[in-house]
Backbone:
């Protein structure tokens, strides 16, 4: 059986809100499925080879840490793009999405280069934006998802490849949310996303393994049902 090679990118810098739980959810299910796996960590003092991994995860971080990570990742734009085009699975949650745009503008107005994978820019506002959202994955229209949004930055542009349609949000976040390009998934939704949304977890595992997977997620589905029952949409 093929070994699944997972990378946690910038885990020392980008580690807010317990979103490392996305990797915990993935590895727990891989273990249940009997799929051998490795998890490696790489940061700003390491050389990056995205071709060595089947899945790359990067989570949200404080603004100053985000800029440090962006500076490092910008030097690997070609390898990053090649991995995405080769259908390596990427999951970027929260502010990590800004690493993959053209640039990030800080609160002083200074512009910092990012990886340039997508045609949007990031803006660090310093203003806290919090919301609950009911989201519909574009590839799973009958599987509503829950996401908690907590950010101090925003994206400008890049809304032409959404990951979700927005069913409900208390505050205005638009009709669409996130990024979906090939196997690259990006979203402001925290939670952790994969721990809270079993259908999305299953989909990411199927992208990773290249085949359907079967496991009992009835309890997770019931937990999500109860969460969504507290929200409109």
Residues:
């Amino acid at each position: 059986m093929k070994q699944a090679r997972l990378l946690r990118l910038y885990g020392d810098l980008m580690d807010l809100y317990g979103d490392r739980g996305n990797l915990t959810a993935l590895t727990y299910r891989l273990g249940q499925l009997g799929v051998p796996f490795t998890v490696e960590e790489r940061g700003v003092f390491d050389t990056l080879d995205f071709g060595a991994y089947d899945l790359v995860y990067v989570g949200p971080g404080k603004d100053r840490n985000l800029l440090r990570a962006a500076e490092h990742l910008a030097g690997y734009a070609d390898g990053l793009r090649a991995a995405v085009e080769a259908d390596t699975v990427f999951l970027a949650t929260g502010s990590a999405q800004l690493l993959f745009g053209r640039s990030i503008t800080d609160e002083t107005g200074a512009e910092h280069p990012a990886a340039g994978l997508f045609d949007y820019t990031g803006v660090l506002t310093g203003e806290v934006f919090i919301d609950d959202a009911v989201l519909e994955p574009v590839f799973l229209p009958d599987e509503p998802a829950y996401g908690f949004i907590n950010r101090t930055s925003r994206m400008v542009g890049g809304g032409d490849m959404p990951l979700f349609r927005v069913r409900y949000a208390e505050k205005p976040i638009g009709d669409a949310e996130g990024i979906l390009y090939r196997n690259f998934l990006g979203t402001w939704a925290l939670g952790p996303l994969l721990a809270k949304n079993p259908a999305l977890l299953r989909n990411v595992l199927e992208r990773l393994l290249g085949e359907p997977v079967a496991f009992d997620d009835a309890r997770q589905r019931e937990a999500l049902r109860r969460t969504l029952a507290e929200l409109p949409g």
Q: What stands out?
A: The chain has a mean pLDDT of 96. The CA atoms of residues 47 and 121 lie 25 Å apart.
